[in-house]
Specification:
The chain is mostly beta strands and 296 residues long. It has a single domain, classed as TonB-dependent receptor, beta-barrel domain (Maltoporin, Chain A, Beta Barrel), CATH 2.40.170.20. It is built from two helices and 18 strands. About 5% of the residues have low confidence.
Length: 296
């Protein structure tokens, strides 16, 4: 169609990082950065798609990118096998993406009852201010065992209005990760990753907590030229995105799963290539990031 809009973006995105080392094992950092987060392709696709007879998702080609400015103050210390890294931060973001649901005016008769058809779409709804603290602890015992734990706690304040409706939200949430690697007998390497994301409010409801864990086993063979690996992704099949939507007109619950539990067995053989070079790229992906997004 002839319905189009031209947009031009000119902006600046500075990054400043300062550090001061008190001693070899104690230091502080101060960082300031400005970042851009562009909408994903399905956020922009204007063609509607159905997840069921009563649910429609439609992208919004008029979306603008999210611009965020953040400042953080960090402290790093080392003691024996432990490394501790803590920080406090503040982030302000504009044109934040949010999904809103609205009735289309259509209904579908199911079991003798007229069920409204709901359309869900992303919009630049709000501004967001996030205040939080993050702590990372790393523990290493030689080459046999190492573990890394991270926890991020934050308060999120969202303010936005759409079609004369106020979608303000003020909530506290957190997420945590644990990664561990241990060398078992017979030089079998075991790796595991756990992730937890706490519940939080959304523009029209709430997003439930999510937990997932993945693990892998690997064994070098043929004088370290080959590696046999067993990977189990989402061991307990719990990596699901669940949310509730509540408006003046309807209540709905949704659950999405990007990929179910999977198990894979692989063999890698290296020709004239050192294993250290391969490990820089990494071959283990436990998944479960805190920024999983689903279209509807």
């Amino acid at each position: 169609s002839n319905d189009y809009k031209t947009k031009q973006y000119t902006n600046y995105f500075p990054t400043v990082n300062l550090g001061y080392e008190f001693t070899k094992d104690h230091s502080i950092t101060l960082g300031l950065n400005r970042r851009i987060r562009r909408p994903r392709s399905w956020f922009l696709n204007p063609f509607p798609s159905r997840s069921s007879v009563t649910n429609i998702f439609q992208g919004n080609p008029d979306l603008d990118p999210v611009i965020s400015t953040a400042v953080d103050l960090g402290y790093l210390t080392k003691s024996g096998s432990f490394t501790f890294n803590g920080s406090v931060y503040y982030q302000h973001a504009t044109d934040v993406f949010s999904f809103v649901s609205m009735p289309t005016g259509e209904t579908v008769n199911m079991g003798g009852t007229d069920i409204p058809v709901i359309k869900r779409m992303p919009i630049n709804l709000s501004t967001n201010d996030r205040y939080g603290g993050e702590m990372t602890v790393n523990y290493r015992v030689g080459r046999k065992f190492n573990a890394n734990a991270n926890i991020n706690l934050f308060k999120s304040v969202t303010k936005g209005t759409y079609q004369n409706q106020v979608f303000d939200a003020d909530n506290f949430s957190w997420f945590a990760r644990l990664n561990a690697k241990y060398t078992l007998p017979a030089d079998i390497t075991w790796q595991t990753r756990l992730f937890y994301r706490g519940p939080r409010e959304t523009a029209q409801g709430n997003r439930k907590a999510m937990f997932s864990t993945s693990m892998a086993f690997s064994k070098d063979v043929f004088k370290n030229k080959g590696t046999l690996s067993l990977n189990i992704s989402d061991l307990f099949n719990t990596r699901k995105f669940s949310m509730e939507t509540l408006t003046d007109n309807y209540y709905s619950t949704n659950e999405y799963q990007w990929r179910k539990r999977s198990i894979s067995l692989s063999f890698t053989y290296r020709f004239n290539q050192k294993k250290q070079q391969r490990r820089r790229q990494g071959n283990y992906n436990g998944g479960g990031g805190d920024d999983m997004e689903f279209p509807g």
